[in-house]
Amino acid sequence: MEEHRHVTIYDIAEKLNLAASTISRALKDHHSISDKTIKKVKQTAKEMGFVPNTLAAGLRGNVTKTIGILIPTVTQPFLSSLISGIEIAAQKSDYSVIIMQSHDSYQMEVDMAKSLYSNRVSGVICSLAMETKDTSHFKQFSNNNIPLVFVDRVPKDYDTFRVVINNYLAGYKATKHLIEQGCKRIAHLTAESEFGTLYNERKRGYIDALLEHDIPLQDNLIISLKEMTYDAGVKACNLLFDLKTPPDGLFAPGDILAVSAVQTAKKRGIKVPDQFAVIGFNNDPISEIIEPNISTITHPAEKMGKAAAELIIKNLKSVKEEDAKEITFLNTQVLIRESSRKI
Amino acid sequence: MEEHRHVTIYDIAEKLNLAASTISRALKDHHSISDKTIKKVKQTAKEMGFVPNTLAAGLRGNVTKTIGILIPTVTQPFLSSLISGIEIAAQKSDYSVIIMQSHDSYQMEVDMAKSLYSNRVSGVICSLAMETKDTSHFKQFSNNNIPLVFVDRVPKDYDTFRVVINNYLAGYKATKHLIEQGCKRIAHLTAESEFGTLYNERKRGYIDALLEHDIPLQDNLIISLKEMTYDAGVKACNLLFDLKTPPDGLFAPGDILAVSAVQTAKKRGIKVPDQFAVIGFNNDPISEIIEPNISTITHPAEKMGKAAAELIIKNLKSVKEEDAKEITFLNTQVLIRESSRKI
DNA sequence: TTTCTTTACACAATCGGTTGCTTAAATATT
DNA sequence: AATATTTAAGCAACCGATTGTGTAAAGAAA
After folding, report:
1. Which of A159, A318, A336, B173 is most buried, by the most CB atoms less than 10 A from its CB?
2. Does residue B126 lie within any of the structural domains?
3. Which ranges carry the HTH lacI-type domain (chains A, B) (predicted)?
4. For B106-158, how does the pLDDT look when each residue is reduced to its tens digit (9 = 90+)?
5. What Å distances lie between residue B64 and A53, A97, B161, CA to CA?
6. Strand segments (E) across chain B
7. Which domain holds residue A66?
8. Model confidence at B323: pLDDT above 50
9. Nucleotide nearest to A38 (CA to C1')
10. Nucleotides on chain C within 7 angstroms of protein Cβ
11. Are B161 and B176 part of one and the same domain?
């Protein structure tokens, strides 16, 4: 096997007896290069298998056209859809995407933020790790005018772009839907310790919906979970069903939890939705497949990704407007399916 | 907001009255730098918020410590687990990961391969797009000694690293399991047009298992699908159930198809597994959650990712051995769950 | 004391594409 | 015909980390 060297613009320049700068300009259709030359250069570039070295371009121009994504994991449906959205928007503007998984660890998030900065990404899209309380490791981006967009799990006290849904309203709508279906004792699962506001907001919506419909709030119908997993959901639901007066409805702030609830109910001979109506959150693929289908709140993951990516790309092009540090709210919808349709 | 410049080793050098080269060496504990100097340099580097510019290092050293991943999509459970595996192995050796989705389009794969090359990734891990017949766009890596590893959906005629499972054996084992459960008429779903060998191999295993157990092969029990989706699965299963003598078992080469089969059967009042036993493939999360649980073939996604990443990292360190272009086979297991357990 | 080896650091080239400035020729304007 | 403008392309600095080579000074060996 031969040892090829990467083909550079200098190789092309030599072959055509032109200056490297001419090659560089010709390849980007610079106006000061004649059409003949441009055609000739592009032709030979292709023949020689020239591929520009983005490192060199990035180093010189301080522009990498790369968006860094820093999220807990790629395996959650919501997050992998988010990536898809980012990736599609990025691709349109010829940006690359570099992905890092914090696995919900604060230390990893810190390290990876550094690594992204080290790679001189053009912008960063982040959904915070569960563990993260302090967000000072993101200052390096803000301080160097690298656009930073938080998505979904966002810090409350950081002055930058945020793309979120209205979790309060979503929680309210979900709960209201259950009330409208005739539920009188609606349970809710939430996160035990949270540094963001995501689950708290959903819970607030739940509470307000109840109060607004004159349904007394009952502490024993609200269970805080350490982890939002299937098994944790099963355990919690069993506790609920063991109550003297068990709930007749549940707002689960995640579809996996909703699935666990539906299945636990079925196992105990509790009819869903007649005796126990369930609504989840996210519209994960599984919610459509499981039987009965799970009613859910849509979480526009791809749209959020697209919005976040566009914020970065736009912001890099436009002049910096201080007032652009806005929050983008995307809409959610109640998707009524079998698990909660009683009337 | 102040306009910070990125802190460079020159800034540190100036502050400490040292040469930039000394700073560079001190930061990597070069033996020719005194401990005092090293300590002093690291200290001020931290104080000044220095973060090395990997572009500069990559340009100079032609080493980026970045692994490029080129896959159809991140949303498939198998592939997102694959990424996780790669990412974890990469992280251990301080490599970054850059992900691109071909969305099963040949043209996108070509473009993205170019982009990865343009970014001078250290190595590439790829699972081919469905559309891809020609793999010449990967030659740029081979020609420039950039390690290339194909995973799962691999070309049959490309001389490079491959990390796969034994699809033939897996198909054989799955089918044999159904036979052992007493199934006599076992159906199979497969891909209509395939340029790789993945589904063909599974089908070969299916056929051989039948023949070996003196079960006649019946063409009408094998259905080729355009897409391996839930809906396509439902349609195919309805065709199967409409046969004069419908099947009493199914080997589906994907869990989504298995789920569709189980649910279609249930809807038609066919008892699973008693009248119709099903085994899937991949051990997707859903296979454990759906009721009845789906028997399946494990597909060691994380392990494959880990193996692929390690191949790249190892290969970059070690001297090039021509005979290293090997195929790594990882094991699969039959996971017997409710959907096929009759005895 | 002289010579050899470490130790400690500086100088300058290098990676490859970009871009401001300059030169030179061709075309347009007065 | 003289000057202004446009077109075409070259020169060289630059981005920031790395590394081979060079050069002192200090310590070790002869």
Report:
1. B173
2. yes
3. 7-61
4. 999 999 999 999 999 999 999 999 999 999 999 999 988 899 999 999 998 88
5. 12, 16, 21
6. 66-71, 96-101, 123-126, 148-151, 161-165, 186-191, 222-225, 249-251, 277-279, 296-297, 327-330, 334-335
7. 61-165+301-330
8. no
9. D8
10. 7-12, 14-20
11. no
Q: B59 vs A55: CB contact, 8 Å cut-off?
A: yes
Residue pLDDT, tens place only, B221-234? 999 999 999 999 99
- Strand D nucleotides within 7 Å of a protein CB: 7-12, 14-20
Neighbour count for residue B322 (Cβ, 10 Å): 7
Residue-wise pLDDT tens digits, B267-291: 999 999 999 999 999 999 999 999 9
One domain, residues A150 and A139: yes
How far from A118 is each of A62, A111, A114, A122, CA to CA, in Å? 12, 10, 6, 11
Structural domain tally of chain A?
3
Q: What is the DSSP letter of B124?
A: E
**pLDDT (tens digit per residue) in A170-180:** 999 999 999 99
The answer to whether some atom of strand D lies closer than 7 Å to the beta carbon of B59 is yes
**Structure confidence at residue B326 (pLDDT):** 73
Cβ contact, residue pair A144, B6, below 8 Å: yes
Say yes or no: B146 and B74 in one domain. Answer: yes
- Does any domain span residue A2? no
Residues A198 and A294 in one domain: yes
List the CATH number of the domain containing B104. 3.40.50.2300
Q: Which residues of chain A have pLDDT under 70?
A: 1-4, 317-325
CA dihedral over A249, A254, A255, A258, signed as positive or negative: negative
Which residues share a beta bridge with B71? B101
Select from A53, A115, A230 the Cβ nearest to the Cβ of B96: A115
Q: Which one of A114, A118, A291 has the shortest CB-CB distance to B263? A: A291
Sign of CA dihedral B270, B275, B281, B286: positive
Cα R_g (chain A), whole angstroms: 26
Q: Which amino acid is at B227?
A: E
Q: Same domain for B90 and B121?
A: yes
For residue B245, being part of any structural domain is answered with yes
Do residues A294 and A315 share a domain? no
Q: Say if B1 falls within a structural domain.
A: no
